[in-house]
Design brief:
Largest sheet: 5 strands, mixed
Low-confidence stretches: 2-7, 390-458
Helix content: 40-55%
Strand content: 15-25%
Number of helices: 19
Distance between the termini: 142 Å
Oligomer: single chain
Shape: elongated
Strand order of the largest sheet: 1-2-3-4-5
Length: 601
């Protein structure tokens, strides 16, 4: 828990300089009303008075009535004494709260300390999916839980008062509800439905007497089952609550939380860099595990997953396909006594969730068909589990933090299903399973619905129960019609699937032929290039041989010319010598002058 300021004023009246002039003006007007001073003194929190004014749209008369009600409650419940205690002990921790150790043991959580958002305010982490409400209330009473919750609310109020004195802002705290549930979220809600009464008391107390303390509630690591629960829950909640709640899927949790909280102040299991053990040690032990399973389905392949059921068992199933792709999904029920029963007609989809009540012993089979795709593999996350009976012993989530998570829902959330959408047979689900599942979800929704008016919840629940009865009657009357429509849809789907497969086969064959033609053209071109190169080489050799022959002929010609010249020279020399010798023979006594003359001649 984050440390508070060591010194706080004993009363916050007039201590806050509000940045919003509407708040300051409304407070001044409120103090001027007759008998308001007594209520404000009993309230002992200027921030709480400002929060009531903001909730009432600064209608001072309405706010005064609500403040008077809360001032009386604070005296009767002991909340005023708790505030005094916390002002005297500003660094008190959760474990020092009344009944803190069992609450922390059975409902893993943390608040403050390292858990600080970008505004500098503490934020809360509630590990709803691994909480054990049954175990908690086996060791403490409902009144003892209310004591702990009152201390927590007063501590939060003091944190917000410190922030308001520093900034002048009227704001609330961020609550992060971790919906990770190893045994499946539907099983968790079903298990703890019996504890809805105390959860309603806790959340009603917060809504009535601590307005605006929680600014927003993020349901993070939310599985597909969260949407199924909220379809039932949404109509039970007031609009002010619906606007606060945000559902964040598992894949988007790190990015969304890092927008609000620095990575260093966020545990790893929520997408941060801080050690999980510094926040929620019990949650750290579960990192790497997961609810549901994953399938990697290659192109052209089909996978099946099944669950054995006994008569009356209720199974929940759901799936989502990654990267915006789709899968051909269907579900059927097999038994030895009867023929195969179609539960969910096969169709291409990206996400789906539903439930099934076994009419007899058998096996529920999920089919993930990617045979229509020749190229793209599919990454599918799915869950197939048997819903536990409320008296079954198995770990499941619940806790005082449920009230906070449940109290709010995103304004962008899809509206509740219409009667036709909730028609059991139209969804491929036996009508009894709808009633059983919705009863479980309605019980679980009270964990969330603490901020809703209790009378409104009961009226809404009665209306929904009546609607469910009408829907079941309609489902039974229209069963044969739905069966025929399902058969036609299946035939149409099979036909379209066959057409698609044929088209893909034709495209693949055309692509194969084009590839072969290209290979053939490449081979022909290669052969032509080789022939051309051979001709070029032959021509080159021919030219080389011709050149060599010409050079040889020229060389021979030069040789012959040289030999001829030598012969001619030799002949000339020989002729001159013989003439001289002959002259000497005829003219032996001739002088040298005559010889020279002869030689010259």
């Amino acid at each position: 828990m984050a440390d508070s300021a060591d010194e706080r004023p004993t009363s916050s009246a007039g201590q806050i300089r509000w940045a919003d002039p509407r708040v300051a003006s409304a407070l001044q007007e409120l103090r001027a009303l007759p008998e308001a001073d007594g209520d404000l003194l009993a309230l002992d929190s200027e921030l709480l008075a400002a929060a009531f004014l903001a909730r009432c749209d600064f209608d001072v008369a309405r706010a005064k009535e609500a403040i008077g009600h809360t001032a009386a409650w604070r005296k009767q419940s002991g909340a005023s004494e708790v505030r005094k205690k916390l002002l005297e002990e500003p660094k008190i921790s959760f474990s020092d709260f009344p009944h803190g150790p069992p609450v922390l043991k059975h409902f893993p959580q943390c608040e403050g300390g390292a858990a600080v958002d970008k505004r500098g305010l503490p934020y809360a982490i509630r590990c709803v999916g691994i909480a054990d409400a049954v175990g908690l209330f086996s060791v403490i009473t409902e009144d003892e839980m209310l004591q702990f919750q009152t201390h927590l609310c007063e501590w939060r109020l003091l944190q917000l008062e410190d922030f308001a004195r520093a900034t002048g802002q009227l704001t609330g705290l961020l609550i992060v509800q971790d919906m990770f549930a190893p045994n499946g979220l539907l099983n968790a809600w079903r298990k703890h439905g019996s504890k809805s009464k105390i959860m309603r008391r806790l959340t009603s107390m917060m809504d009535e007497h601590y307005p605006g303390v929680m600014e927003s509630v993020l349901l993070v690591n939310a599985p597909w089952a969260m949407h199924a629960i909220l379809r039932i829950l949404t109509p039970l909640l007031p609009q002010r609550v619906v606007k606060k709640l945000q559902v964040v899927p598992m894949a988007q949790t790190p990015e969304r939380l890092q927008q609000l909280i620095d990575e260093s102040n966020l545990p790893e299991f929520l997408g941060g860099s801080a050690a999980d053990a510094d926040f929620v040690p019990a949650r750290a032990a579960l990192v790497g595990s997961g609810s549901g399973s994953e399938l990697f389905i290659k192109a052209g392949q089909t996978e099946e997953r099944s669950l054995d059921l006994q008569q009356g068992d209720i199974a929940a199933f759901g799936l989502s396909v990654a990267n915006g792709l789709d899968i051909l999904f269907g579900c059927h029920f097999e038994s030895e006594e009867e023929a195969v029963e179609e539960v969910f007609p096969a169709r291409r989809l990206q996400e789906e969730s539903s439930s099934f009540s076994a009419p007899r012993d058998g096996r529920l089979v999920l089919t993930f068909d990617n045979s229509y795709s020749w190229v793209k593999p599919k990454d599918v996350r799915f869950e197939l589990s048997k819903l536990l009976a409320e008296d079954d012993e198995a770990p499941a989530p619940a806790s005082e933090g449920l009230q906070e998570a449940t109290t709010e829902t995103p304004s962008s959330m899809e509206s509740p299903s219409t009667p036709s959408e909730m028609d059991a047979e139209a969804c491929g689900v036996v009508p009894a399973s709808v009633a059983a599942t919705q009863n479980s979800l309605l019980a679980a929704s009270e964990h969330f619905a603490g901020f809703a008016d209790r009378d409104g919840i009961e009226q809404q629940a009665a209306r929904l129960a009546k609607e469910r009865q009408e829907q079941e009657a309609q489902a039974l009357l229209q069963a044969s019609q739905h069966e025929e429509e399902s058969r036609k849809r299946q035939e149409d789907l099979d036909r379209r699937k066959a057409e698609l497969q044929q088209l893909e086969a034709e495209q693949e064959e055309a692509a194969r032929q084009r590839l072969e033609e290209e290979k053939q053209r490449e081979e022909e071109l290669k052969m032509a290039q080789q022939a051309l190169q051979t001709e070029r080489d032959a021509l080159q050799r021919q030219r080389q041989e011709q050149h060599e022959a010409e050079e040889k002929a020229a060389s021979d010609r030069r040789t012959r010319e040289e030999e001829l010249a030598d012969q001619q020279a030799s002949s000339a020399i020989l002729g001159s010598t013989e003439f001289a010798n002959l002259t000497n023979w005829f003219f032996p006594h001739s002088g040298s002058g005559f010889q020279f003359f002869v030689l010259i001649k």
